[in-house]
TrEMBL record:
Domain of life: Bacteria
A Pfam match: NMT1
Protein's name according to its UniProt entry: Putative hydroxymethylpyrimidine transport system substrate-binding protein
Segments of this protein annotated with the region Disordered: 67-86
GO process terms (BP): thiamine biosynthetic process
SsuA/THI5-like domain residues: 105-318
InterPro entries membership: NMT1/THI5, SsuA/THI5
Length: 385
């Protein structure tokens, strides 16, 4: 609070006026005493002037004095206590994040952080953008058209090797999501039985190194199968038996979705067939602009970590909050997949497993999937270390 000290002039002025009035009131007595001593002289004086005694209305004078003092008090500083003026908060810093595809349960940490106000609390205005084409996010990030983009660790290594100015700053899904999926009613019961079969895919890194490594685990290669690019119709192509198998990054959702359609499946997990463990969903930034946005990204990761912990502590409430924000996610299949999706989320999204990135880079280099072996610092950073 602000304290202002002021002094009133009323007491001094009032004492002075009372003394003045007192002197006037005793003047007749003094004059009468003087007249008695000069009585004889006064009798002989016929034209002497009468003593002028002012007639003073004391109450009126005091009233005037009080009013004057009051007016003086109004103009004179006094003691005032008041709260300070509120300080306007700084404007929110905008961060544009391009998703890897349409919103899905794997984006829950971002959706919940936004709905629960964690981004606002960190002074951030986060815009989530869905791409029209899954190949677009990395290109827009490299061109500084967005601030962050979602991708997969294998794709990050390829982008860096191609010279793209991208770097991992956070992890949303900390486990591999890649797998080969077949219908339960098919004759394919092992990877070795994919020989001569049609395998649908949508992303190049799912084909090589993921599928090629899995085939190599059983002595096969990509030229032993018939790969077919089905774009983003993986689920539909398997449901309609357009392909015999699919390879993709949705092991935590697609089996549940196909099962809801009455199509049970079985899958082969990439890390169980020679593919090193890696992060399934990461946040990438533009390396050339990283330092200028470091503070914003640090606060973003704090908000995501808080949202993830809240989801783990309150899974049912988190589900309700997510589908309230994105009603299109409210399906029986997604709800059944929710516990598994939640288990895969990174509890410390900023933390970097340097060994994991070093090992995967070595794996790619040994397979001739990269022209150069890049240091971990070129691939990923931990902004909150």
């Amino acid at each position: 609070m602000t304290l202002l000290t002021r002094r009133s002039g009323l007491p001094c002025l009032k004492r002075f006026f009372m003394l003045f009035v007192f002197l006037i009131l005793i003047q007749p007595a003094i004059a009468q005493d003087t007249s008695s001593q000069e009585e004889d002289t006064a009798e002989n004086t016929t034209n002497s002037l009468p003593l002028l005694v002012p007639l003073v209305d004391v109450d009126a004078a005091l009233s005037i004095l009080s009013e004057s003092a009051q007016n003086t008090e109004e103009d004179t500083p006094s003691v005032t206590l008041r709260d300070p003026e509120p300080i306007a908060p700084p404007p929110l810093q905008q961060i544009r994040i391009m998703l890897d595809w349409y919103p899905s349960p794997q984006h829950a940490a971002l959706l919940v952080a936004e709905e629960r106000g964690y981004f606002d609390r960190e002074g951030l205005d986060v815009k989530l953008i869905s791409p029209a084409d899954a190949s677009v996010p990395a290109k827009l990030l490299a061109a500084s058209r967005v601030d962050l983009a979602l991708s997969r660790q294998p794709e990050l290594h390829r982008l860096v090797d191609d010279g793209a100015p991208v770097v991992r700053i956070g992890t949303l899904i900390a486990t591999p999501l890649a797998s080969v999926l077949v219908r339960s009613d098919s004759e394919i019961e092992s990877i070795s039985e994919l020989a001569g079969k049609t395998v649908g895919y949508s992303m190049e890194d799912n084909l090589d190194p993921i599928l090629d490594t899995m085939l190599g685990h059983h002595g096969l290669h990509l030229n032993d199968i018939d790969p077919e690019n089905v774009n983003f119709s993986l689920q539909q192509s398997l449901a309609t038996e357009e392909v015999d198998a699919i390879v993709g990054n949705a092991r935590h959702t697609v089996p549940y979705q196909l099962n809801q359609e009455g199509i049970p499946t079985r899958q082969f997990l990439a890390e169980e067939y020679g593919v090193p463990r890696h992060d399934g969903l990461i946040l990438m930034a533009n390396r050339d602009r990283l330092e200028s946005q470091r503070g914003n990204f640090q606060r973003l990761l704090v908000a995501i970590e808080e949202a993830t912990l809240w989801m783990v502590n309150h899974p049912d409430e988190a589900w309700e909050l997510m589908v309230a924000k994105e009603p299109g996610l409210d399906s029986e299949a997604n709800q059944n997949a929710w516990p598994e999706t939640l288990r895969r989320m990174a509890l410390r999204p900023s933390a970097l497993n340097a060994r994991r990135y070093r090992h995967f880079e070595q794996f790619l280099h040994e397979r001739n999937n990269s022209r150069e072996k890049h240091p971990v610092g070129r691939l990923a950073v931990d902004l909150n270390s």
